[in-house]
Design goal:
A hairpin with a 5-residue loop joins strand 1 (14-32) and strand 2. With 331 residues, the protein is of the alpha/beta class. It contains eleven helices and twelve strands. Helix content is 32%, strand content 24%. Strands 6-5-4-7-8 form a five-stranded parallel sheet, sandwiched between helices. Helix 4 (162-175) packs antiparallel against helix 5 and helix 5 (179-200) runs parallel beside helix 11 (309-320).
Length: 331
């Protein structure tokens, strides 16, 4: 899909707004104009204002979604979506989240509606959301279709690379009427990304192996978020040409590809990472092991397509090129 424009064009949106004025005190004021035209201007001392509005948009998987605008009760079905919504300032509007949502701290106090692939529909119904936001990278189509049948508009995002995250933030800013806030986040992330690229552009690219699974050993291939981050941070992914997005590699193949930096992702919250380090120490013929370049990296920063992915990029660049990132980068 091509990128959406910053402002939503008429061809991609339909906004209908209905307003109802209920005056409590009305006083007519008489004015005389040219040609003895009499104009009556109604002065409202007090009035109550109520409205209803709907917005129709295409989401990132090409579905047309019509929902109340701006939405006031939102259910998020993925951690990255939750992080984006809170970063936009929607502290009150987010009423439900997935069981995987652990950031920011406020998200932990929201009602849990289920996992990526299985949600409690009765709990969603009880929350009475006017919008559900899903991800194309995890939430099954059948789940989204059932939510729609139950009467809950569901907008899906589907970022696949770093720049897609910026696009998704912009889209959600449009969806929730927070375009200014979204633009501010995007501009900050873009500046920080360009600083990383500028610092590493003339450096040699060390061969990097990112481990995301222990038994069997699983890494990241072409088309994955982490592959994009390795490239942007000035490294060369040793599995960057593998067709599988998450290939399994045997130790013989890893030895053959000879990584100079090994990054271990903290994907498993119960993982024994000290043991993982000890396992690698057995293979002294690998350059990364020989030179002590084995590092643990926070999986939430490199796996979640949220505003914090820029922190993951900066951390990865610091581990790959420590000589260029001795001081923390400023926002």
């Amino acid at each position: 899909m091509g990128e959406y424009p910053r402002c939503i064009p008429t061809s991609m949106r339909t906004l209908s707004l209905h307003k109802k004025w209920i005056p409590a005190g009305v006083y007519p004021v008489l004015y005389y104009g040219t040609g003895m035209t009499i104009l009556f201007i109604t002065v409202l001392l007090w009035a109550s204002f109520s409205y209803s509005a709907t917005l129709k948009l295409k989401d990132e998987v090409g579905r047309e979604v019509t929902f109340p605008f701006p939405p006031k009760r939102i259910v998020s079905l993925a951690p990255n979506i939750t992080e984006i919504l809170f970063s936009l300032g929607l502290d009150e509007e987010v009423v439900g989240v997935s069981i995987h949502c652990n950031y920011p701290e406020k998200a932990k106090g929201r009602v849990r509606v289920g996992s990526y692939i299985s949600i409690d529909f009765e709990r969603v119904i009880s929350l009475k959301p006017d919008l559900v936001i899903a991800t194309g990278a995890g939430n099954p189509r059948e789940m989204v279709e059932r939510l729609e049948r139950l009467g809950f508009p569901t907008y899906a995002i589907f970022p696949k690379r770093f720049d897609d995250v910026l696009r998704s933030i912009r889209h959600l800013g449009q969806v929730v009427a927070k375009e200014k806030e979204a633009l501010s986040i995007i501009e900050s992330m873009q500046r920080r990304k360009e600083r990383v690229i500028e610092r590493t552009k003339n450096l040699s690219r060390p061969k990097v192996f990112l481990q995301i699974g222990e038994a069997p050993i699983v890494t990241v291939g072409k088309g994955s978020f982490a592959d994009d981050l390795i490239r942007l941070s000035g490294g060369e992914n040793i599995s960057g040409n593998d067709r599988e997005m998450y290939p399994r590699l045997g130790m013989e193949e890893i030895l053959k590809r000879s990584p100079e930096v090994i990054l271990i992702s903290s994907m498993n919250p119960k993982g024994d990472y000290e043991k993982a380090f000890r396992e690698w120490e057995r293979w002294k013929m690998i350059p990364a092991v020989k030179h002590g370049r084995i590092y643990l990296i926070d999986s939430d920063l490199i796996d979640r397509p949220s505003p914090r992915i820029i922190e993951g990029l900066e951390e990865m660049a610091r581990l790959i090129h420590p000589e260029k990132f001795k001081k923390p980068m400023q926002n």
